[in-house]
Amino acid sequence: MRTLKLTEETQSELLGNLLNRNPGSYTEYENIVNDIIDNVRKNGDKAVFEYTLKFDKSELNASNIRVTEDEIKEAYKELDPKFVEVMKKSAENIRVFHEKQKRNSWIDTREDGSILGQRILPIEISGVYVPGGKAAYPSSVLMNVVPAKVAGVERIVMCTPPGKDGKVNPGTLVAADIAGVTEVYKVGGAQAIAAMAFGTESIPKVDKITGPGNIFVALAKKACFGHVSIDSIAGPSEILVVADETANARYVAADLLSQAEHDELASAILVTTSEKLANDVSAEIEGFLKELSRTDIIKKSLDNYGYIFIADDMDAAVDAANAIASEHLEIITKDPYEVMTKIKNAGAIFLGAYSSEPLGDYFAGPNHILPTNRTARFFSPLNVDDFMKKTSIISYSRDALCKVHEDIELFAKEEGLTAHANSIAVRFE
Questions:
Q1: I want to staple 208 with a disulfide (CB 3.0 to 4.6 A). Which of 115, 155, 180, 229 is the partner?
Q2: Which amino acid positions bind substrate, per UniProt (predicted)?
Q3: Which of 346, 302, 238 is nearest to 19 (CA)?
Q4: CATH code at 188?
Q5: Which of 171, 202, 230 is at the close of a domain?
Q6: Which of 238, 284, 327, 357 is labelled catalytic?
Q7: For residues 189 and 418, what is the distance between their CA atoms, to the nearest angstrom?
């Protein structure tokens, strides 16, 4: 993990390096993904079964592609009951937080007889993708599904890859049951995204697809956008810690490593005003690497995308944080709340020494599906609004329209749209 002086040059180099992780950079995989999508779109279940056998070494057919009630019951038996209870607590925290995001339809009635308003309704069918592969993440199930349930989505479809034995990770299945998933299908990869985007004989077409995945899943979501709504094209995980001399080096090191273990492309960055803290954190990281699992992944992540920057002052550190616009931002300073007021770009902000990033990943309640690769400059965490659609309502009386019809006609004529103008004018002939 390199230690550098924070300057315009080193910050620019960092931002350029981080952009290399953008899913849009992996154009060499696009043709593969597009071929998968086209095949699933044309051949439906047949293509899905073939890809599942090829990539997951699992033989599917119309009778076993959907997870059964018995399989869900079996999954409960395979898990530690204490873990099941923890997932239930987490789901409740997520529900309570997202309930506060709900908005209601509204109508504004004016004295001139005009009525304007907005009708807010949930989408009908939501699709969620849950990875298998290197690791299964029941927490992502909860984070994707609970906001949809709070929004009022009636049908929630989940796709997740099976193992060679044809079974789905038990933690994933139990989380899906707790969160309220309607149906689960044993399909992974780009073929799962295509199946949900266009529908097959077994898998229904959905209105929106959310959830993380590998580069093939990300590119498939990108390619299907427009035929179906998506949450975002998520990049690798990232954490930025802004700290001063009051921070505990051991805590900071542990928090940086908590993201570096996700995969080789994960980014872990410390920006500090204290050279001593920078050195202490570097030493603590070396110590932790001797104790932790997934050490090979962590080392590759830190070698490629791990940085410690020493800033002249806290204003410079904050400027860097706003430029990086990290998915996760921890502020561990003497007065973290004061520093927070200067932050403009971050997916989620964690304040103080005891608000470690995994608190948000698993339990606190705010969503952990967050904008990555600097998209926190214009994207938000997954939320209830992502599962709602808004319709405008317009009603004018003759008297209300009479007062403004000449203005509307003038506007239409200036744009050369005489039929638009005529649509208004005929009502006052």
A1: 229
A2: 237, 259, 262, 328, 361, 415, 420
A3: 238
A4: 3.40.50.1980
A5: 230
A6: 327
A7: 50
